[in-house]
Amino acid sequence: MLKVIRNLSSLPSTTRMPLKFAANVSMIFTEHKDLLERYNAAKQAGFQGVECIYPYDVPTDKLAAHREELGIEQTLLNSYRGDPQKGELGFAAIPGKEKEFQDSLDVSIKYCKALKCKRLHVMAGLMPSHEGNQRTELLQKMEDTFVKNLKDAVPKLQKEGILALIEPINTVSIPAYFLSTLDQATRIMSRVGHENLKLQFDFFHIQMMHGNLTKNFEKHLPHVGYIQVSQPPHRGQPDSDGEIDYSYIFSMIERTGYDGWIGAEYLPTGTSADSLKWYEKFKS
Predict the structure, then answer these.
(1) Is 167 considered catalytic here?
(2) Catalytic residues per the record (predicted)?
(3) Which residues of 118-156 are buried (b: 16+ CB within 10 A; e: fewer)?
(4) Is 243 among the residues known to form the active site?
(5) CB-based contacts of 98: which residues, under 8 Å, 6+ apart?
(6) What is the mean pLDDT of the segment spanning 178-187?
(7) Residue 4 to residue 28: CA distance in whole angstroms
(8) Which tens digits make up the pLDDT trace of 77-125?
(9) Fewer CB within 10 Å: C terminus or N terminus of the chain?
(10) Strand 119-121 to strand 73-78: parallel, antiparallel, or no bridges (unpaired)?
């Protein structure tokens, strides 16, 4: 259970919670083509947790046995995306794709259980191109579909001990992704109305869409179930050149009492090994 303090201004300056970082092995350690070798590299670099965007090309038994042998925690998976050649990026908000969503959820649950992963990012999917009134109607229809699918999926995930997460993704990186703002995410969580649905707060995406990181984080902290970090605008490691002062951000997170995982979901600006100086500085 995450423990958080809602009002940062009420905290004494000495209040701290140790930070726990997980390496995203879909984006870091890509010098290794084999996913299992990336797990090895993360462990050797000192990470106690890993997240993975799409592990679905590796058989569950092989991946689970390797994770168990390493003694590293699987902190997060993305739900099965579908066929990237068809432009699929999840199905949860796609009208008429309810069967595909259910089938993809079953696959995702299978991997979560095998890897003992307790968090699943439920991918909403991509919007088709529409303009004017058609776009407004489509947005509402997609939100209704997303809410209905989540109402079915979230209790099912809870029974398996898996927290459901939704994540606003900025419209520069993925222009057509359905869920892009904090207001959308908050409204959808409110409509679903279930304790097992939380917000995946990615500082990269929130900076790109909203800015005002301190106030936005404080405002949404009661709903945050997972954090991710990288450096805008190019998604490099936290201490690369960019818009966010992560010394301040990590100190702020510590003071909130957040005791969950922080996923390092970034594209190294050089080698993966060279990109880890920030981790050596901020790891607990």
Answers:
(1) yes
(2) 167 (proton donor/acceptor), 265 (proton donor/acceptor)
(3) bbbbbbbbbbeeeeeeeeeebeeebbebbbbbbeebbee
(4) no
(5) 91, 145, 148, 149
(6) 98
(7) 29
(8) 999 999 888 888 999 999 999 999 999 999 999 999 999 999 999 999 9
(9) N
(10) parallel
Q: Which two tokens stand for residue 52?
A: 């993975």
Catalytic residue among 51, 88, 254, 265: 265
Nearest to 73 by CA among 19, 31, 35, 21: 21
Q: Give the residues across from 51 on adjacent strands.
A: 24, 76
CA atoms within 13 A on the CB side of 87: 9
Given 73, 143, 167, 254, the catalytic residue:
167
Main-chain dihedrals φ then ψ at residue 74, nearest 5 degrees: -85, 110
Pick from 49, 157, 42: which is nearest to 111 by CA?
A: 157
d(CA 60, CA 77): 13
So what's the pLDDT on residue 240?
97
Q: Tokens 């998604």: give the residue.
A: 235
